[in-house]
Prior knowledge:
Elements (H helix, E strand, L loop, with lengths): L33 E2 L3 E2 L14 E7 L8 E9 L3 E8 L13 E9 L13 E5 L10 E9 L9 E9 L32 H20 L10 E2 L2 E2 L8
Antiparallel strand pairs: 1-3, 2-3, 3-8, 4-7, 4-9, 5-6, 5-8, 10-11
Protein name: Nicolin 1
InterPro entries: Nicolin-1 (IPR040235)
Amino acid sequence: SASPAPEPCWMEPPAPSLGHGAGFPMAPDPALCTVRSPVALQVGDVKTDLARPGVAVIDVALPPTQPLDLQEIVFKNSYTAFLTVRVQRRRPCDVGREGARKWVTCLWNHCLMPSPHTEAGSQDYFSVFRHQMLCDVDQVTAVRLILRQPSPVWLHFTLEELRLYPRGQQSLQTGFPSWLSNLAPQQQPENLHGGVPDPEKVSTEVQQLWVLTEMIRANQTAARIGRFDVDGCYDINLLSYT
Length: 242
């Protein structure tokens, strides 16, 4: 028998597919990767400086022979206030120069907690999509996430359940804050098509709406909602007049 395929590196397995065999979409598979433990960037002597670091870095390594055309980054926040994402990309001129690849910023200082001193957004699930990136994210060989938490209120901050999805696949994640999907005007990439909507963005939103509709339809119940009626009639003693 064939040996089992290696498992992707997320903290929990992906959600089961919706209605396998009944016309529902299968749960997509995240890209194979290795998520390193967060490294705090400490200023001064680590042993003697009592100030808590406000910046941490999480590196994600991809298989060297399988560069990723990135579609989506999904994670659960854990008290991180701002997120910056940098990537290394394979280019034809990089043959034999893997160590010389430059880091390119594709998401800058993105807000996850509107007020770092309060709980809002601190433990929410987030999705960052391809159309939000400030640069091309094809042929990605490494990802670096830079986490910032300026508030001294929280002892620890990180990102959990981190997953990367390749182009052509995306998670079934819904319900993330709408403000996460909309960059500030100064962060938006230049629109080369004038007033024509980005077809990739429209496709992503339509697919999410369709998945949500299928989930609602699958969860519908045929049971009748009973209130005060018995066999279609109401007991006069249970009715209230105002």
